[in-house]
């Protein structure tokens, strides 16, 4: 399990952990258990500038937080979002859509998606008045938990791709265990924090339905897009919860 944790950190983050881990099915399967917790670790790292600079200048603190979200993930999930949007909004057939998603070039729809998601996160973080650090940490955890559900339960679109590699290791037990502990942690912190997780889950199901319609299953790019979109909707829901409470 320690190797699985290290592999999940190496796979989901750009935090320098120079420990060689065998990229075998067992380690890949065990790594999925830690996805939401790695998300929380990322959230802690990204929230550091907000925690220390918010009292001086909220805009700068929010901007640096979003920048660290990109730096600590290496833009991996943003790349998946742009590729997914380019493919899905190309209005081509399934095979051509998959080809567009594999293309390393970024189209106009992909560029627009990057601008909008980054701007959206900045606006939400800078607009929140309370529980901002909690929202950042748990939104990054929520995004990766929803991806776990997709990995375990949803079909893959392309044999041999990243999505297929994760799915074929059959990590259902690890995912159920990690999800259960993660939900317990959220409930202990604040039962109201389950609302953003629920909204993220609903969005994840809508993404799944649309993905099945477009390409018949998931790819690594769609997993990345899911993380970015569910992070954003989770932050938005935290903002709503903060106004309500």
From TrEMBL:
Record membrane topology: Multi-pass membrane protein
Coiled coil location: none
Pfam families assigned to the protein according to its UniProt record, in alphabetical order: CobS (PF02654)
Catalyzed chemical reaction(s): alpha-ribazole + adenosylcob(III)inamide-GDP = adenosylcob(III)alamin + GMP + H(+); alpha-ribazole 5'-phosphate + adenosylcob(III)inamide-GDP = adenosylcob(III)alamin 5'-phosphate + GMP + H(+)
GO BP term (any one): cobalamin biosynthetic process
Spans through the membrane: 33-53, 60-78, 106-125, 180-204
Family annotation (InterPro entries): CobS
Keywords: Cell membrane, Cobalamin biosynthesis, Magnesium, Membrane, Transferase, Transmembrane, Transmembrane helix
Main localization of the protein described in the UniProt heading: membrane
Taxonomy, superkingdom: Bacteria
Subcellular location: Cell membrane
Molecular function as annotated in GO: adenosylcobinamide-GDP ribazoletransferase activity; cobalamin 5'-phosphate synthase activity
Enzyme Commission numbers on file: 2.7.8.26
One GO CC term on file: plasma membrane
Co-factor(s): Mg(2+)
Keyword field contains Transmembrane helix: yes
Pathway field: Cofactor biosynthesis; adenosylcobalamin biosynthesis; adenosylcobalamin from cob(II)yrinate a,c-diamide: step 7/7
PANTHER family: ADENOSYLCOBINAMIDE-GDP RIBAZOLETRANSFERASE
The family this protein is said to belong to: Belongs to the CobS family.
Task of the protein: Joins adenosylcobinamide-GDP and alpha-ribazole to generate adenosylcobalamin (Ado-cobalamin). Also synthesizes adenosylcobalamin 5'-phosphate from adenosylcobinamide-GDP and alpha-ribazole 5'-phosphate.
Record-given protein name: Adenosylcobinamide-GDP ribazoletransferase
